[in-house]
């Protein structure tokens, strides 16, 4: 007889693919926080940084300088600005589809960061000059150089996207699934407690 999952567990019951309201709410909350933080910092950059020398911080490790970017990193793809909002809309649609079976708290944080970052830059593409779908993204953070000499100038939306993607890669590598389950190295779904040191020790004793 299979025991029911403990209360509050992220692990789904067999055959249950419904999303958990708590994890979907967490995804939305993280995305909203990332979006608002990005919009606020861009507003401050547009108000404080134009027509002035880059602001030097942390002994020159970080600079604040206003850049309007029509492309991707280092301005790549600047002749195809209209492509970027289409890609972003596709990413947003994919995240909404993933949320339909989301039951994992770490995945909610990861997808929320990606969603918030994607929406932050999408707002620029849609509503900033020079026009709808070809707007330039506001970037303002540069590391080890005032104008992106060593690393592309970026914004908080970019940071949110990168953190979300890195977290997603880590979750995939450790077998954590969006429905709250886990996959072992052999590709087999793990039962609660499997994969831990205690579970591994018990399994070794059974085999001895």
From TrEMBL:
The active site is at 139, 158. GO terms for cellular component: plasma membrane. Keywords: Aspartyl protease, Cell membrane, Hydrolase, Membrane, Protease, Transmembrane, Transmembrane helix. The chain crosses the membrane at residues 24-45, 82-100, 107-123, 150-173. It is a multi-pass membrane protein. GO terms for molecular function: aspartic-type endopeptidase activity. Residues 1-20, 180-208 are annotated as: Disordered. One of its GO terms (biological process) is proteolysis. Its EC number is 3.4.23.36. It is an enzyme of class 3 (hydrolase). It catalyses: Release of signal peptides from bacterial membrane prolipoproteins. Hydrolyzes -Xaa-Yaa-Zaa-|-(S,diacylglyceryl)Cys-, in which Xaa is hydrophobic (preferably Leu), and Yaa (Ala or Ser) and Zaa (Gly or Ala) have small, neutral side chains. HAMAP family: LspA (MF_00161). This is Lipoprotein signal peptidase. The lineage of its organism: Bacteria, Bacillati, Actinomycetota, Actinomycetes, Micromonosporales. The gene is lspA.
